[in-house]
Amino acid sequence: MTVNIGLIGLGMIGRDHLQRFQTVIQNARVSAVCDINRNVTDAIAREYGAQPYYDAVEMIQSDDVDAIFICSIGPVHKEQILAAIKAGKPVFCEKPLTPTRMKPKRLLMLK
User: Fold this and answer.
1) What sequence ranges are listed for the domain Gfo/Idh/MocA-like oxidoreductase N-terminal (predicted)?
2) Which of 33, 71, 83, 110 suits a disulfide with 14, CB 3.0-4.6 Å?
3) What CATH number does residue 28 fall under?
4) CA torsion sign, 44 to 49 to 50 to 52?
């Protein structure tokens, strides 16, 4: 079974993960991409055959995505993590998990 990954954030770190999914990781593929820059979203979607999304929460809620990889800017991580948890999807988030030291503990207690 192939896991369909939704990748949020297509900067250097996001592209590194995207390349890894293409060349190293088995049984997973990036099926959807989202970035704040629409031109980047469109270009990466075309290059990798992924569905472009311009709203991260919409992508997270999509039935076509099984798990979420968050590589966006730090201040929006919390919102995107919570959306993935609410959608019942596994989520990986690049650092920082949250902008302050106390908030990660609250996120880790969510199920």
Assistant:
1) 3-102
2) 71
3) 3.40.50.720
4) positive
